[in-house]
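The records we work with from here on pair a chain with its fold. These numbers are not coordinates but entries in a learned vocabulary of local backbone shapes. To see the layout at work, look at the sequence and tokens printed below.

. . .
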Amino acid sequence: QVQLVESGGGLVQPGGSLRLSCAASRSIFNFNVMGWYRQAPGKEREWVATITSGPITYYSDSVKGRFTISRDNAKNTVYLQMNSLKPEDTAVYYCKGQSTSMKDYWGQGTQVTVSS
């Protein structure tokens, strides 16, 4: 069973930065794509960013230009660098991996709170 473990969340002031990490229990070459999603209180989970094995990256309009997704294959880890954070970025952030057999794996989430 593959496990994804997120870390790096916390409390940050508006305009600040955080870097989230998603560590996989096996090689991330087993995943066609990996991505980040988030869920704010009372809202549905929404897609944030995706990185393929290429790697090619995709971003939602709400984070484009502020967030950067990257991967370190040697460390089996995917990152989400978040800059210029806004209060509306407050959410639980989840990592997802889609395996080569098209199965989805989710992490347990990490809380990001942007507040002064």
Notes: Residues 44 and 116 are 25 Å apart (CA to CA). The radius of gyration is 13 Å.
